[in-house]
Amino acid sequence: MLKQQIAASLEDVFSQFGFAEPSVSQLQKACDVSLRTLYKHFPSKEEMIVAALDYRHQRYLSFLEQDTTSLSATESVLCIFDRLQQWMEQYAPNGCMSMNAIAAFPENEAIKDAVDKHKQQVKHYLGNVCQRPDLATQLFILHEGVSSVWPLLGADAFISTKITITTLLEH
Q: Which positions does the record tag as DNA-binding (predicted)?
């Protein structure tokens, strides 16, 4: 349980401040544990980042997977993009944390693997929800595009994306 609490605190700090700024000492203070306890669970800053990414991954999928059973495939996908907008507004003011991690640590295989796992599962989920696995890649590209431009375009990015989704799924 403590390991999950630490991962949750790490996710919050990295989401707010990025990956370069917080020192291990700042991370330790934010987690409200001793440095020894932090290193016991996550022996390096990179492992702390992977833990934060894994924790965020689970939280994000749970956020997206709220009940859409009574909706059509198109309505379900649009609902997911509504949730993505909520997520960006509430939890990702600096854009996609996964892509920010890759940008900060482009050579780190563990971080790349954590991001790849997350992105593949999101892509698979989108294909399942729309009941068109053949459109998973297109929907995933829209998902990634809108989350990438969120810091610049805000809500306008979602308006255009929803129009594109409707066109894609209804034709």
A: 23-42
Structure pTM? 0.91
Residue-range domain boundaries for the chain:
2-170
Residue type, 45: K
Note the CATH architecture for domain 2-170.
Orthogonal Bundle (1.10)
pLDDT in tens, 20-74: 889 999 999 999 999 999 999 999 999 999 999 999 999 999 999 887 667 888 8
Q: Give the residue from 139, 150, 59, 48 showing the smallest Cα distance to 96.
A: 150
- Residue 131 tokens read as 């009941």
Task: Encode 1-20: b = buried (16+ Cβ within 10 Å), e = exposed.
Answer: eeeeebbbbbbbbbbeeebe
Question: Is residue 19 classed as helix, strand or coil in its secondary structure?
Answer: coil
Q: Which two tokens stand for residue 89?
A: 């507004």
